[in-house]
Amino acid sequence: MIDIHRLRVFRAVIADGSIAGAAVGLGYTASAVSQHMAALQRETGLTLVERRGRGLVPTDTGRILADRSATVFHSIAEVDSLVADLRSGRTGNLSIEYFSSAGAAWIPPVIAVLTREFPDVRMDLRLFELREDSTAADIEIFVARTSDDEPGTIRLLDEPYLAVVPADSEYAARAAIPLSDLRDAVWVDNDAARGPCRENVLAACATVGFSPSFRVQTYDYPTAVRFVAEGVGVTVIPRLGLGQLPPSVRAVPLVDPTPMRHVALRVSDRCPDNPTVIRAVELLRARAAA
């Protein structure tokens, strides 16, 4: 069995690129780090690093081991967290998966109430965009692909998309913009992952006979807004995702048609009667209706 401590030292060396730097970070002597590295290579029978100039770089084999071992240390961190929770008496757990714009608007105040009302419950928050674990959360907040309610889901919000445009553009003074008027505009994409939020916009554009001309691709709403603020183009964002807009942009309603986003939540079959889950759903519905 591989020695976990030596594996941790190896990852530190790879991250720093030198034995001396890793030694400083770990609080060891350089000699001790070298001994751990040599022992790990003997233990595995693999050449894990090689010298390049004055530093060390992983071999292809070493890079694979370093990458794959990340999950080991993630699991150890979870066990450490569990032990800390058990030591302090927190034996319950509530997991909530959410997408970023819902997280920014709803999750902090909801969790603030839950931690006060259920101090012994550990909160496990998962951002959908960074999902690694396929295990379903107790509560999932998601963007529904249609306006029809799916079985077992609770509708939270139907919200319009707005055009975010430069404040000095001809669009900014309008009370509303027909979607077809953006046919020839330069668009800034805000969902390069091509998820349901982007699909809603593309479907609405298709109904008026065009496909947006995306000049820049970004991965989130705040970054797209910054490009608009610099005059690169326009972007289309659901109301919940607007956040605090800079003074150099305007958010203008879209009409004919108005693209819509449908936000819902799903409760896992394993915990429908859990008091913490019931209270969390109640709080989320209240935030969505506010």
UniProtKB/TrEMBL annotation:
Q: Which UniProt keywords apply?
A: Activator, DNA-binding, Transcription, Transcription regulation
PROSITE patterns listed in its UniProt record: HTH_LYSR
GO (cellular component) term, any one: protein-DNA complex
HTH lysR-type domain location:
2-59
Pfam families in UniProt = HTH_1, LysR_substrate
Q: Name one GO molecular function term.
A: DNA-binding transcription factor activity
UniProt superkingdom: Bacteria
Task: Give the protein family.
Answer: Belongs to the LysR transcriptional regulatory family.
Protein name, as recorded = DNA-binding transcriptional regulator, LysR family
Q: Which organism is it from?
A: Williamsia sterculiae
